[in-house]
Design goal:
284 residues, alpha+beta, six-stranded antiparallel beta sheet, 8 helices, 29% helix, binds N-(5'-phosphopyridoxyl)-D-alanine
Length: 284
């Protein structure tokens, strides 16, 4: 069975999908995207991802081509057509196709693309062993709250991570961790407080972040939203990262130095379980 993707209103085999070279996503990175996880064939935290998609579009003045109900219908359809059980749905909206000119063109239709990817998430080896990360300078622009497809700084950060043989790069600005190349960063201090950076234009408002904070608070765990330094992270008891596709992933070393005892800790294990329980309880 060929892979089925979605382009501008149609489901087509991947080989037949085409985007014109004048698409502003291609020329300017003038577009936004979302990634929703699929576990057990179900979309996880999907309404929140669609709300962030709506917000990202609004911030750069692109009309949302579909109401949420339509997005959900399309997502379920692409999951079904690809027989996806575990992985992700990727959605991208660009300003559309027009002769190259920086300012917004008039009367263009947004370009909409969706595809699925299979990914082993629940039984990912790093969930058991823990992941290593490196730190890199945060080279990004000043509106990181928008889920822009312009990801060159993250591409460079994650390439550095790949060359170092680690899972993720934690980006650092003014001595504090902003977030991972494609994930939110957390530490758990020695007194058991879960710490993650407060929301601002300096980082993406992670959907998994929000759910994990809620689940932690419901379990009577202490959560503090504030910035932390790499030194503080190295002094922490545990560390982890969250994203739609990593769920909750333990971080056991930073720049080659162990976090805590360098092993996956009990609180991260518990948070991952709480997240998986939430996913399992999600209606189809
Ligand atoms: N990335 N921070 C950044 C910079 C991200 O790109 C992502 C997600 C996150 C986590 O957000 P969420 O929990 O909503 O997935 C934080 C996606 C998965 C990606 O680019 O593939």
């Amino acid at each position: 069975m060929s892979r089925i993707v979605f382009v501008n209103g149609s489901f087509v085999p991947y080989e037949e999908a085409r985007i014109p070279i004048m698409d502003r996503g291609f020329l300017f990175g003038d577009g936004i995207y979302e990634v929703s996880a699929v576990l057990g064939g179900k979309l996880i935290d999907n309404e929140a991802h669609l709300a962030r998609l709506e917000r990202s579009l609004g911030e750069i003045q692109i009309r949302n081509p579909y109401p949420a109900e339509k997005w959900i219908e399309l997502e379920k359809e692409i999951v079904r057509r690809n027989g996806l059980q575990e992985g992700l749905v990727y959605m991208q909206v660009t300003r559309g196709v027009a002769e190259r000119d920086f300012a917004f063109p008039k009367d263009v239709e947004p370009t909409v693309v969706m595809f699925t990817q299979e990914k082993n998430m629940r039984a990912a080896p790093a969930a058991q062993k823990g992941a290593a990360v490196i730190t890199v300078p945060d080279l990004r622009w000043k509106r990181r709250d928008i889920k822009s497809v312009a990801l060159l700084a993250q591409v460079l950060a994650k390439q550095a991570a790949a060359e170092a043989g680690v899972a993720e790069a934690w980006m650092v600005e003014d001595g504090k961790v902003t977030e991972g190349g494609s994930s939110t960063s957390f530490i758990i201090t020695r007194d058991g407080t879960i710490v993650t950076r407060q929301l601002s234009t300096a980082l993406l408002p992670g959907i998994t972040r929000k759910t994990v904070i809620r689940l932690a608070q419901e379990a009577q765990l202490r959560v503090e939203e504030r910035a932390f330094s790499v030194e503080e992270a190295l002094d922490a008891q545990e560390a982890f990262l969250t994203s739609a596709t990593s769920l909750v992933l333990p971080v056991v070393s930073i720049d080659g130095k162990p976090v805590g005892d360098g092993k996956v800790g009990p609180m991260v294990r518990r948070l991952r379980e709480l997240y998986l329980d939430m996913a399992d309880a999600t209606p189809a």
